[in-house]
Amino acid sequence: MIQTVSLERYDTEQRTREMMGTAEFEAAIRAVGAERYHDKHPFHKLLHNGKLTKAQVQAWALNRYCYQAAVPRKDAALISRVHDRELRREWAHRMLDHDGYGDEPGGIERWLILTDGLGLDRDYVISRRGAMAATIFAVESYVTFVREQPLTVAVASSLTELFAPKIHKERISGMLEGYDFIDDTVMAYFKRRLTQAPRDSDFALAYVLKNAKSHAEQEACVDAVRFKCNVLWSMLDALHHAYLEPGHIPPGAFRPKVANEVPHG
Hints:
0% strand; 12 helices; mainly alpha
C-alpha cells in the first residue's frame, strides 16, 4: 500500500527543522563551489592551458562581456529593494566597481580593453549582437533571480565570488603563458578582481550567515549558490558546443573572420 505524502506537512517540517550551525552553513555554501564552480568546466581548462585558438578566446570574451555588463544592473535591482541604508551603501560600490566613477574606469571598461586587445570591434561587443542566445538567456535569468528572490537569498547568489580568486590567478598565469596575443594590459580586469572579490564575498557571506533565519532559508541560500554556478556553467556549455564542435555556431552569433581559426574540435 502506497502511503500518501502530505505536502503541507512536509513544508511545515522543512520550515521547523533545526537550523544549521554557522560553521555547517558556511561549509555547505563552500561545498557547492568544490562541486560545480566553473573552473572545473572543460572549456575553462582549455582556456587556462593555452589550448584554444584566438577565435575561440574571442568568442569567450565577447559572450562573457554580456555577464560583466549585467552585473551592475543586477546590483541595482538588489539595491532598489533594500531599506537598510548601511546595506545599500555597502552594495553600491559593486556597481561603481563595474561601471566606474571619477578617474576609475571600472571593470566593464577593463573588460573592453581585453576585447580590444583580442581584435574585436568595441561597438560590436557592447551591442551584444554577436552573443549567443544561450548567453543572453543565462545572464538575464541571473538578473531576474536577484530581482525576485527573497533578499537574503538574492545576496547569497553572489557568493560564487568566494571561489573567484583561485580562477583569476589560474587565468592570469595560464593565459599569459599560453597565448602570444595576451599581455599584462588586457589582463587588468582579473588582476583588480583579486582584491575586489574577497572584499565583496566576505561581506556577503557574513550577511547571509547572519540573516538566514530558518533551515529552509539556509537551504535556499545554498541553492542560490548552486543556481549561480549553473548560470556560469551553462554559458560555458554553450561556448563549448558552438565553438569547439564544427557546424554548431548558432545563427547571428559571432563567427571568426580567419578561416584557419575556425575550431576543428
